[in-house]
Amino acid sequence: MALISLGMYMAKSVWALSYAAASFVTMVLAWVAITGAATRYRKINIILCILSNHLSELPLTIMCMDACFYTWLTLTGTFQESLLVRFFYYTNIITAIGLLYLFKRSLDVQEQAQKFLDQLSKEAKDWVELPGMSSPQFWQQLLNPFHWPRDCTVYPNIPYWTQKELLNAQKADGNSSMADMSLDIYRPYSVHGGDDRPVLFYMHGGGWTSGSKEFVGPLLTEMIFHEWIVVSVDYRLNSKAGYPTQLIDCKRALRWVKDEIRTFGGDPNNIIAAGDSAGGHMAAMMALTANQPEYQPEFENVDTTVQGCLGLSAVVNLVDLENYSHHDARGRFIKDVAKREGSAESAENLKFLIEHSPRFRIKPTGVPFMLVHGDTDTLTPVQNTRDFVNEFRKSCTAPIAYLEVLGGHHCFHLISSPRSWYSVIAAAQWLNHYFDGSQVRSSLKDSRKKMEVHEIVEWGWTI
After folding, report:
1. CA end-to-end span of the chain, whole Å?
2. Could you read off the pLDDT of 367-388 as tens digits, one per residue?
């Protein structure tokens, strides 16, 4: 009997300490999520960003978990017996207020996105109303935070290398490069070969050194719903040569897509480069460096133009002389990503950073851009994106759309929440407006419809 009592005492002590630790961490992360606080250390910022991002996008889930934990402690008598538990119970009330504020701020993005859509509708002659809390679709999204593609056929792990490129990659980086240089294709059931549907060419983030094409966020599922062909691309993450190997690999993948995508129902002349974080950087670079031979060695004659660019939390300025990032982002890119010698402040390396910063690649003519960025992003400073948008509007005749999302942390759009959902719908409508006119051509014959896809896209460039 004594052993049972001792066991129960020890169990309650563990539960009490676990509750206290969880409550303290949640309180700190709620503060970080609200304020967007950052440190001078990138690794710490990454950890805080990931955790606070989940808290910011899933506050009601966190509150439900806390309520379940508290109920268990009450049923076992731990709440009544532990002063520590009772103390953190009251601190959790304060934390709950913060979580409710985070949820409200997420809901406020509906108004932001609706204004964006209202402005877009002036050009598109089509009005979209975002669903609110009274919509069953809203709660369906909210209760299922991680969405995966449905109603589509997946063609995984398609290699995009040539035999010579594979041999060179294996020699330089090992056999793993074979798997790294591959892509997945998502084809909606309603789309068939030769349908000439728009193509979303998506590159994942991960700081150029991590991540996977297999993680498909809400944007990709939304575009599959709109009957787009989605291509999710992998690239070498740990090449000994360093960056721009990643960019060159993505251009190799684009070469393959242009040759083969019509078989899957996609239009090789209607490809939009998109990506998040580092993937957003490469999407912008692809749009701004098309057909430049230094980025497509031994396939210099291949047309690598894309028709548009969509960047989510994209890196647009590697130089960041203003140090908006609060940590040594330049040094990390030069040393760990590009694997170059010397200081990031050296003239040679600064020149390299400028050459690979979309901010300094803007041309008088180009393709339509859209950027989506959270205003509390601690890894990719939002101010750099604001500067890019301002410079683009001054220097380029192509249209650019910018949606700055209230309370959005880095890559908030990878979790299905009200904030990400509204942002994704806005991005999807922008993509459909510029690159897919199928709704207004639905009464035409198929042959005429395919012909006008290209005409609509060309008109979109001049809007």
Report:
1. 81
2. 999 999 999 998 999 999 999 9
Residues for the chain: how many in total? 463
Tokens 């950073």, residue located: 353
Quote the number of domains for the chain. Answer: 3
179: containing domain: 131-317+358-461
For residue 274, list its beta bridge partners: 202, 310
Q: Is residue 116 part of a domain?
A: no
Q: Which candidate, 320, 391, 324, places its Cα nearest to that of 350?
A: 320
- State pLDDT tens for residues 324-339: 877 778 999 999 999 9
Residues 85 and 185 in one domain: no
Token pair for 224: 């599959």
Structure confidence at residue 81 (pLDDT)? 79
Catalytic residues: 277, 377, 410
Domain-located, residue 16: yes
Element holding 402 (H helix, E strand): strand 400-405
Same domain, 20 and 163: no
Task: Give the predicted TM-score (pTM) of the model.
Answer: 0.89
Q: What is the DSSP letter of 438?
A: T
